[in-house]
Amino acid sequence: MGMSPPRPGSPVGGDRLDLDRLGRLLGDPALAWLLERVRRRMEREEPLTGPVSLTGPTQAQRAAAERLLGRAPRAGRSLTVRLDTVDDVLRRSGAAPDGLASAVTALTGPVTALSDIREREARAWQEAYAPLDALDALGPELVGWAAGLRQGGLVRRLSRTPRAARTLLADAVAVLHRLPAEPAVSLPAFAARSLGNAHALDDQTPLATVVLSGIRALTGFPDGTGAEWRREAWASAGLLKDALSSSVLTLNLRGGAPALDWLADTGEPAVLTLRHLTRHPPRTAPATVRVCENPTVLAAAADTHGSACPPLVCLQGQPSAAALTLLRHLHSHGATLLYHGDFDWGGLRIATTLLNRVPWRPWRYTAAHYRAAAAATPLAPPLTGPPTKAPWDADLAGALSELGVRIEEETVLEDLLTDLAP
Can you tell me where the transmembrane regions are (predicted)? Predict the structure, then answer.
C-alpha cells in the first residue's frame, strides 16, 4: 500500500505507536540504512513509496530486512526493500498505525524539510546584510558598493554563517562611517579607537578585506594587490600603516619646513614622506603647480632651471598616498594643477586615477599634442595593453587607437622644459 508522508516536522500521531513492537520490527541497528533513506526522502518531501536498495549488504543487514518483511532469505549483490511493503507491515502490525513516516520520526527524531531549512537560511542571510542599510546616508558611492556586496559572494566566503556575516558588516559599517580620517591617523590606533582592537584591521582579516573594498568605493582608489597597494589604499582614507614608505618627489615647493625651503633655494628635488605631509604640509600654495608622471622630467627641470623652475610634482607612476595628500592640499589652498603623462594606455589610466581623486587640467596632454608628438617621432614604439578612455579629452583615446604608438614624456622633454622656463 502506497502513501504520502505528512509534512516533515508535523505531528504524526505518536500516541498510537506501539514502541516496543516498533523497536522489534524497525529498531535493529542493521536497519539504520533504511531509516536514513526514509529520512532523506522526508527531508525532500518525496513520497515514501517504491524500492530502496543497498549495495553489498552485510549478512546482518540482509537478515534484519528479511525478518521485517517476513520473507525467505534471498541472495544477490544488493538488498532491495519496497517502502510500500514496510509501511503496510507497520500499519497491520499495530506498531505504527499511521505508517512509516510516524515510525521513523519516533525512532530517529523530528525531520525538517530541506525547503524549510533553505527558506530560513535565505531569510537569515537577508537579515545579515541589514547593517548596510546605515550606509544610505553616506552618499551614492557607498550605496552602490553595498548593493554590489549584497549581490556578490564576498561576504559569504569570508564569514560562512549569517551570524558571522552580520557581525562583520556591522563592524565594517562602523569603520566606514568614520572615514576618511582627517587628519590622518595610525591604522592600529584607529582600529583600537573604533573597534576596541588594535589588530582588527590587520592584513588578511575578513574585516580588512571588506573595509578596503568599501574604501575603494569611497575614495575611488584603483583596484590592486600586494602590501604596497594595501598601504596606499588605507592611506587614501587617512589610515596610515607606514607613514614613511609612501613618498612623493617635488621641486621648488616651499613652506612645509625649513629644509624644504632650503632645497627650493638651491633648486634641488625633495622627497616628501606621507608622515611629513600629514604633520607639516606646505603653509602656502603657488597659483600653479605642474605635475608629471616620470622622474626624468623633474630631474631635467632641476638640471636646466634650478631654483628658478616653477613648482613641480612627480607621481613616479601611480599616485601614492603621499602624492594624493600633497596635491589635495595644494588644490584645497587654491593651486591650479596642470598634468602631463605618457601617451599610452597605462599613462591614461594613471591620469584618470588622479583625476578621480583631485581636479587637474591637461599640460600638453591632449589629442592635438599627441598627434603632433607622434608626427615628430617616426620611430615611436607601438602601443600595448588594453585601451582605456581619457575623461579630460574625448578625442585622445581615439587618437591613440588610430596612430597606435607610444609617446613617453622623455620624448617631449624639450617642450616640457620650455614651459617650465622662468
Answer: none
